[in-house]
Amino acid sequence: MQAVKLKLVDGVRNTKTYTGLKLDNRSLKEQNDELNGQIINLSIQGAKSLFTESLSESLAAEINNVSRAELMEAIHKQEEINFRLQDYIDRIIVAIMESNPSILEVK
């Protein structure tokens, strides 16, 4: 008889513990959702501030502050990067055409 009472008491304790854990879990989930919302808001604010800062420095202002030689050097560097990227893309397309040309079909 005493063993049955212990099991019943343990069952009640376990039920209370389980209910308490469920409440704690729900509370933690709500806190987590709230913190995630705050993170998103901070990220958006940070992105907005970066955007407004980048708008303040226009391309025209940058061009006015560099010499012609520096500008020409930057253009040549960009042309070299563009050439390398185009070459890379060409090699990828050729490899795809050799191995599986059907994935290049436009549907």
Automatic annotation (TrEMBL):
Protein name stated in the entry: Rab11 family-interacting 3-like isoform X1
Keywords from the UniProt entry: Cell cycle, Cell division, Coiled coil, Endosome, Membrane, Transport
Gene3D superfamilies, sorted: 1.20.5.2440
One Pfam family here: RBD-FIP
Domain FIP-RBD, chain residue ranges per copy: 45-107
GO process annotations (BP): cell division; endocytic recycling; regulation of cytokinesis
Coiled-coil region(s): 18-45
Bilayer topology: Peripheral membrane protein
Compartments reported by the entry: Cleavage furrow; Midbody; Recycling endosome membrane
Source taxon at top rank: Eukaryota
Species this chain originates from: Labeo rohita (Indian major carp)
InterPro entries: FIP-RBD_C_sf (IPR037245), Rab-bd_FIP-RBD (IPR019018), Rab11-interacting_regulator (IPR051977)
GO CC field: cleavage furrow; endocytic vesicle; midbody; recycling endosome membrane
